[in-house]
């Protein structure tokens, strides 16, 4: 039986979603919980990595198991064995050819910036103490929308297609908080954090608002802004043709 | 010179405010930062303990130092050396007879309950999955107000005065969140958590709403509710005659 698992996690204490040599990944913790339930070695396949310190509301994975539990019992059993910073939202039986990574059609990421330091949210939003010109950031944001080669907004991408389509990009301001969201058919390594870092540098006046177009055209990473910190980043959801 | 320090901290990663043999206290971390600034061994005296996992918006301490810095420079220097989960709000010079514990006149504690589990706030609010009758809790809450012997709502209190006056007690509901606050001339060990635990047991129908009066009169801890968990508790402020 193949199962699709939707899981949320607080990435603060993990070295990213995937297994790491140098630290614990969320994936490994879920596999350990599955082993405790099924007594079978079970590999999970995620829709993609998230970096160290990055969070998820709805990461999607699949796994195969000969154990046949009711969907709600999978969820209950997993949440019993998982630590409190990883919570399974749902487990559903899917066809054997479902693939969490290859069949992902759309993903949404959100990035939360605050201009007021909050001790209790220090791992869950990125504090920026510079004044930001939000109007300029909004204008530049629109240049990301569409099908582009995002090579200049990524890092460590070798021999992989770098053309992605961003369907939607929004920036909302709520008091001291700024939330920037992207819906795309896929994202490259460090892509959201590079885009957000560039927008921050535009907002504080370090980069011109035309830099987005320039980096997309030149594919020159060195022209873009700094990679934004991981703590503000959330994988919101992954969508499939279903 | 004597200084008064107001500090906020996220207690999640500490074994309480005071130095502990078995784990790191917030106090010790502040003393280490003071040593890094002044190169003097400096003891701080807090307004009182907070338990392991309990937070503070405005804990107050005093310390003596031969080092004479501007008030704003103390704050900046301390925040440079302190970890991100402890933030100094202010440092002010006070008279030599100011005492953070003996001269405290009023303290406010708040306790945050949620009825919707939030992964990202698991260390900062207490999740209750039982339905709660908030009206009953509000009624019982009023019985705490006034001057009473709170021995029955404390633990490990030996040879200390147990009569305290609660000036104000409030319960506010906001969606899934319930915030219970107490302003008093002082609190005994585990007092707020015992009072809140009793209110929770009243809200879920395990205890009668008259139990508050009964415990205050009988001083019988065994009749009260369970001690509520630490993660929802915040020391809001400490006031002095100034």
From TrEMBL, chains A, B:
Top-rank EC class of the record's enzyme: isomerase
Residues that coordinate or bind substrate: 109
InterPro entries found in the cross-reference section: PsdUridine_synth_cat_dom_sf, PsdUridine_synth_TruA, PsdUridine_synth_TruA_a/b_dom, PsdUridine_synth_TruA_C, TruA/RsuA/RluB/E/F_N
Gene Ontology biological process terms, A to Z: tRNA pseudouridine synthesis
GO molecular function: RNA binding; tRNA pseudouridine(38-40) synthase activity
EC number: 5.4.99.12
Keyword Disulfide bond listed: no
Keyword vocabulary terms for this entry: Isomerase, tRNA processing
Residues at the catalytic site: 51
PANTHER family on file: PSEUDOURIDYLATE SYNTHASE (PTHR11142), TRNA PSEUDOURIDINE SYNTHASE-LIKE 1 (PTHR11142:SF0)
HAMAP family on file: TruA
Protein name stated in the entry: tRNA pseudouridine synthase A
Native source organism of the sequence: Acholeplasma brassicae
Gene (UniProt): truA
């Amino acid at each position: 039986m193949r199962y699709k698992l939707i899981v949320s996690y607080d990435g603060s204490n993990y070295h990213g979603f995937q297994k790491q040599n140098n630290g614990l990944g969320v994936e490994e913790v879920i596999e350990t919980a599955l082993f405790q339930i099924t007594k079978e070695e079970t590999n999970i396949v995620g829709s993609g990595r998230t970096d160290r310190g990055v969070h998820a509301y709805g990461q999607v994975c699949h796994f195969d198991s000969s154990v046949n539990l009711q969907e709600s019992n999978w969820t209950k059993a997993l949440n019993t064995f998982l630590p409190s910073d990883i919570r399974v939202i749902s487990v559903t039986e899917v066809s054997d050819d479902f693939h969490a990574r290859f069949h992902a059609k759309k993903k949404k990421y959100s990035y939360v910036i605050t201009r007021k330091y909050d001790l209790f949210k220090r791992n869950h939003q990125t504090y920026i103490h510079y004044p930001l010109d939000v109007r300029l950031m909004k204008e530049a944001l629109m240049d990301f929308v569409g099908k582009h080669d995002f090579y200049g907004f990524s890092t460590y991408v070798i021999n992989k297609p770098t053309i992605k389509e961003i369907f939607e990009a929004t920036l909302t301001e709520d008091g001291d908080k700024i939330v920037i969201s992207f819906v795309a058919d896929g994202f490259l390594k460090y892509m959201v954090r590079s885009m957000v870092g560039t927008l921050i540098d535009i907002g504080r006046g370090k980069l011109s608002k035309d830099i987005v177009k320039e980096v997309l055209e030149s594919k020159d990473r060195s022209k873009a802004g700094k990679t934004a910190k991981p703590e503000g980043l959330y994988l919101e959801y992954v969508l499939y043709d279903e």
